[in-house]
Amino acid sequence: MPAPDTVRLIAIRDTPLSVDEVLAAVADPAAGGTAFFSGTVRDHDGPPGHPAVTSLDYSAHPGAQRALREVAERVAADFPVRAVAAVHRVGPLAVGDTAVVVAVACAHRGEAFEACRRLIDDLKREVPIWKHQTFADGSEEWVGAGACAPTG
User: Is the pLDDT of residue 132 over 50?
Assistant: First the structure.
């Protein structure tokens, strides 16, 4: 079980995200390494030649923030983490917008890199957040955690 103040920022928001806010949340004088990942909306998805992404909208299950906290707590328990933070955006996003920011502070850089990689990988795999993409040819697709995407 991680220390009570190790998981410092967990949020799912419909407003723009700040890398600076996430990095400030994990600042710790005992941390020699801080690793972060910032995921942005790109203008394509799929193999070369696939139609361009024209719009994107993230949706989250009502329990998504709780699931995000559980993922962060598990990472903090499995690694020698000083601090961890994760925020994900929902709603309509444009190409170039920041969709997710995670950060981990540890005593050493190697631990920070490993824990940060695990945090973003587990978030993408387990937290019920879905991405609805529309492409230039009019096709669309749902992508996200689990097999069940929202309808309508």
Answer: yes
CA distances from 79 to 8, 51, 118 (A): 16, 40, 10
Angle at which helices 109-126 and 64-78 pack, to 10 degrees?
A: 150
CA 124 to chain centre: 7
* Residues 1-35 pLDDT 10s: 666 799 999 999 999 999 999 999 999 999 999 99
Statement: 7-144 belongs to CATH 3.90.1170.40: yes
- Please report, for the chain, the start and end positions of each structural domain, with discontinuous segments joined by +: 7-144
* DSSP-derived 3-state class of residue 56: strand
**pTM score, two decimals?**
0.90
Q: Which residues contact 146 (CB under 8 A, 6 or more apart)?
A: 128
44's tokens = 């394509």
| CA 116, chain centre distance (Å) | 10
- Cα distances from 92 to residues 13, 15, 122, in angstroms, run 11, 10, 23
